[in-house]
Structures are given as C-alpha cells and as structure tokens.
C-alpha cells in the first residue's frame, strides 16, 4: 500500500526552491538581478520638458496641459524595491497535468521571486483574487515574511467552477491598494471576461508591471483521441467533442492563435513586459531567458 506524499509546507517549498532554483539563478545571473527585476523603488524629484527618448508613462498630463508642452516627472531611485504580486487564483488555475498545475507553478514562482527580492533587502506584498479580492498581504521583508505569504497562499481554497473570472477586479484592486510606485507582478492565465485591458494600462502608468501568463500545453492543442468530454475550466460547462474530426481540431487551433494574437496586442498596447510560463517549463531557464530579453530591450 502506497503512503500518500506529505502535503507541501512553506518551509519544504522554500528549501526545495533554494536548492533547485535560487542557487542555479545565482550562478546564471551572476548577481545581476536588476536585469530581472529592474524595479522602481522611487520617489518623485522634479519636472522637466519631455525629450524624444523619454518614457511616455512619466508624462505629467496636468502640467503638460497648463504649459502647452509635454513635461515628464523625474524620480530618484531608492535602493529598496517594493514588489507586489497580484495573484489570480480562479478555478482555471487548477488546470494541468498530474503534478503540473498552473497553481503549482504560480506558488513556485511567487516563492522564488519573493526569496530573491527579500534577501536583498526589498519588500514584497500580495493581493489574492478568486471571484473577488480575498486577501491583501502588506509588504514585508525577510524569510519569515516569505513563509507567511506562502502559508496564506497554500491555504487559499480551490473554488468550484461557476462563472467566468473578471480579471479587471483584481487589477483595479491593485490600482486602489498600491499607493507608492513599485514593481507589480500580475500572475494569471488571463482567462477572463473582457474589460481588464484598460485597468492594466492604467496600472502600468502608475507602476512597472510585469505580466506573467501561466498556461498548460493541453490548453493549446487537442490530441486526436476520439470523442471526449471537455469541461470549461472557469464555468464548469461540459460538451462532447470528436477530436478525430480534423476540421474541428483546425477550428480549435485557429481560436487559440487568435487568442494568442489578441493577448499579445493587449500587452503591447499597455506597455508591459510579459513572461510566458508553461507548466512544463524549467523555471530557471524561463527566468534567465526573460531577464535577457528585458536587458536587451532596454538597450534598444
């Protein structure tokens, strides 16, 4: 008789990630964590006229209107970064293969980033969201704070499927709750009712936002295995489909491509960097690749 594996605890998760992820990142990034976070712990310093190379997010529109010429805000960077995790914990985040759920990847990512940030003196906070904003964890630092964050995250229940997630509620919660400019990780699969696009744009005007899109390969391609029952990960609606039907698989693939294009357009218009993370990805390689892309984009 097989004994079930013990439930993961915050301490076990952190120990595993310290060995399997954080140490490898230390070697590959060689201490250059700014290429990964590049966050803003900043205070407002002054105003000056806009220059062609300036980031349009820093334009002060009130002053611009009064002076009839564009002005931008200047900031003085602090050593400390305050990072927030806006966490989508809706039912679709429980999708994936055995031992490879999107929610599990979310937990590992939050633990890793929190560990990297707090051990360098930065602070992290979190907003948990399911059908509504369920919990707010104020920013803190240190290992004990990370363990508390993980403990609260593991205790979040998986709610039954009922209705499509409204991601705009989570983003608006971040807009209202995060007062000081900082680094925001919006972690979701972005399976949501429409209407979250403008709040994302507004959030990125006030903070530096990194969108982390979690996915599972099974969401993007239907296998040719005959008639199967498909269940909507958000609403629980079920329907029988015949995956032997080439035309049906082609239509499904087209819908997936259109969705990918739509999301890419939204992120581009909002001006946010995107980390696409699959449940089958190696977390270290994904983070190092993302850090390289961010570093390269700032040189252009």
How would you sum up this structure, described in words?
The chain has 300 residues and is α/β, with parallel strands linked by helices. It has two domains: 10-41 and 78-292, Rossmann fold; 45-76, no CATH class. It has eight helices and twelve strands. The protein has helices spanning 10-29, 61-67, 102-118, 143-155, 167-177, 197-206, 246-270, 283-299; strands at 42-49, 71-77, 82-88, 96-97, 100-101, 123-129, 133-140, 183-188, 208-215, 227-231, 238-242, 273-278. It has a six-stranded mixed beta sheet, with helices on both faces. The protein is globular and about 65 Å long. Residues 39-43 have low confidence and may be disordered.
> In what order do the strands lie side by side in the largest sheet?
7-6-3-8-9-12
- Tell me the fraction of residues in β-strands, as a range: 15-25%
Total of helices: 8
Rg, please?
21 Å
Distance between the termini: 59 Å
Quick one: CATH class of the largest domain? Answer: Alpha Beta
For the secondary structure, the number of strands is 12
Main β sheet profile: 6 strands, mixed
CATH 2nd-level architecture of the largest domain: 3-Layer(aba) Sandwich
Pick out the low-confidence regions. 39-43
Domains (count) = 2
What is the 3D shape?
globular
Task: Provide the succession of SSEs.
Answer: HEHEEEEHEEHHEHEEEHEH
What's the CATH topology name of the largest domain? Rossmann fold
CATH-level-4 superfamily name of the largest domain: von Willebrand factor, type A domain
Subunit organisation of the chains:
single chain
Q: Indicate the mean pLDDT.
A: 83
Helix percentage: 40-55%
Class from secondary-structure proportions: alpha/beta
